Each structure stands twice: as structure tokens, then as C-alpha cells.
Amino acid sequence: MKKSIYPVYQLLTAFIVATLFLPLTSCTEQPVQQMYYEIKIFNIPQPGQAERVDKYLKEAFIPAMHRAGITKVGVFKPIEADTALFGKMVFVFIPYQTSDHYISVPGVLEQDPDYQQAGKDFIDAPYDNPPFARYESIFLKAFKNMPHFRPPSYTTPPEERIYELRSYESPTLAKAAKKIEMFNEGGEIAIFEKLGFNAAFYGQVIAGSHMPNLMYMTTFADMKSHDEHWEAFRNSPDWKALSAKEEYKNVTSKTRPFFLLHPADYSDF
Fold first, then answer.
1. Where do the domains of the chain lie, and which CATH numbers do they carry?
2. pLDDT at 26 exceeding the cut of 70
3. What is the pTM assigned to this prediction?
4. Which one of 126, 202, 208, 229 has the minimum C-beta count within 10 Å?
């Protein structure tokens, strides 16, 4: 009697289907690529410098960054109540998909004629009348539990929104790694998420002036919302339990002043 060939076809079909799905399974198991961030902080102590920085950022820098593939650039200024910093600093946040993207951007700007023309008064300002005193550039890598920048969305006017930038310094490299673990595996990010802090990013500083440290930004519709959220955080049983763990003791040695910021009216978020 002639044997049926259908079982052979069935086996072959099963093998092909399984093979086709192998790459898909492998891809889904790959870790999500973490973004990189740059924070530029312009020091503008002289009258008129703020307007010149605004003009450069609005008309030259941000449009050029958009052309370079960066769709969201944030510009922030200290709130009016911060009399020590108000009118004296401008913060610029730039998210990059990869570190190579960050490295390539200065070359892209050099070859961008529209940027060079629009930013000429800023880039080539007179030596005795500069548009800023100095600026600092901080480079960060996103935390694995929030690997991508997430721009907030509010209906309140920009001058009412509060974006809070925090920096936590650690006494040693080991303690710094432990503080980052506290955010990730420890669940600190999860607590912020649960309480609706609308964080824009969390990042480990990999080049900056206060290392080892991490920085992050939480955002709020207005100051009332800011105060209510932090009150809820301080009273959170989850936070009290996490902060009481022995393994996370002394993971920070200094907390830099918390910058309470408004977004500029031309900021992308």
C-alpha cells in the first residue's frame, strides 16, 4: 500500500512556520535602545543677553536641530520667584537617538548655511559684547526603565507650567550605581509614574561638572499641581518603604538646587 505523504507536508509546514517566527522572537527579546541627552546651561548675567540668546535659539538653533532630525528641543528659564537665578540662566534640553547622533550634530550645523546666516550675530558676536558669559554642556544616558524621552503635553500657558530639573550627586561610583538601581529595579521611577509626575526623562550623567550624578525632570501643569504631587510623594507608603531600605542608605551626598523652570514660549515642549 502507498504511504500518505500528507504527514511529511505537515511537518515541513510546521518547520517553515517555526523558522519564520524565529527572527521575530529574537528581535522582541533585544533590549530597548536607550537615548542620550544634552543639557546646555547658558549663563547670562548682563542686560540684553537673554534677548540675544532667545533670538539665536528661536530663529537659528532650534530650526537647525529640526533639520538635523531632532524634533523636540526644550528651552527653559528659572521661575520669577527664584530671585537668584531668574533672568540669569537659560536651559536647553536636546534628545538624541544615539551617541553618534550627538557627535555628528556640530558638523551638521557647520554645513548648514541657513543656521550660519540666522545665527551669525550670536555665533560671531563681538568679543567685547558676547551674548553670554559661559555655557555648560551636560551629556546623559537615559535610564533603562525609561529609555526614551517623553515630552509632556499641557493646556496651561507656558508661563504657568513648572518643569523641575533635579541633580543627585553620590559620594562614590558604587553609590551612584546604587542610586540608579534604586530608580530602576528599586521602583522609584514606578512610584513617580503611579503618582502622575509626568517625567520627561531620567538620565545618568556621563560627562559633566558634578559627577558622579544623575539628573531627571518632572513636569506639572502649574505650581499648585507641583506642590500637590510632591506632597503625595512624601506621604507615599511605597516611597517610605523604598527609602527605608538599608541597601539604599547614603546613595546621595548632595542634591544640587532644584531648578524650577518655565518653558520658553518657543520651546518645543
1. 36-263 (3.30.70.100)
2. no
3. 0.87
4. 126
Task: Please name which of 208, 221, 266 lies closest in space to residue 75, comparing C-alpha atoms.
Answer: 266
Residue 25 carries which side chain, given as an amino acid letter?
T
Helix (H) or strand (E) holding 109: helix 99-110
Backbone phi, psi, residue 94, to 5°: -130, 120
Q: Using the predicted structure, report yes or no on whether residue 17 has a pLDDT greater than 50.
A: no
Instruction: Name the DSSP letter for residue 55.
Output: H
In one letter, which amino acid is 10?
Q
Q: What's the gap between Cα 153 and its chain centre?
A: 15
CA 246, 249, 251, 257 torsion-angle sign: positive
Cβ contacts of residue 125 below 8 Å, gap of 6+?
Answer: 52, 131
At 224-248, the pLDDT tens digits run: 999 999 999 999 999 999 999 999 9
Cα 123 from Cα 118, distance rounded (Å): 9
Q: Give the percent of the chain with pLDDT over 70.
A: 89
How far apart CA 77 and CA 86 sit, in angstroms, is 7
Give the strand pairing for 259-263 and 162-169.
antiparallel
Residue 19's pLDDT band (cuts 50, 70, 90): very low
**Hey, what amino acid is at 27?**
C
Contacts of 179 (CB under 8 A, 6+ apart): 168, 170, 214, 248, 251, 252
Residues in contact with 134: Cβ distance below 8 Å, sequence separation at least 6, in sequence order: 43
